[in-house]
Amino acid sequence: MRIGYAMAVAAFLAATPAMAQLTITNGNDAAQQHQYNADQDRSAGRANMEASHQEAAEGNYGNAMRDREAAHEDWHAAHHEEHSADRDANSGVTVRLGQ
Prior knowledge:
By secondary structure, this protein is mainly α. The chain contains three helices and two strands.
């Protein structure tokens, strides 16, 4: 009976290094990165819209339209990043083997 316990402990100790390579995370790092990217895109969109207003005030309507389109593209990218952040935040558990 004692030999059985000793063998079980030995098997557990032998398997321990392999178990140390298992990494379990919740995916929040990716969600935080997506949220950061969304904040950056929104900021760029506001800057482009401000530039558009400035160009329009100066009578440069072609440049104003390009800045306005760039602002909308930035806001679209921010919206996409927010969806990615929501998806990653609710993704549950990520299990990685190795490294």
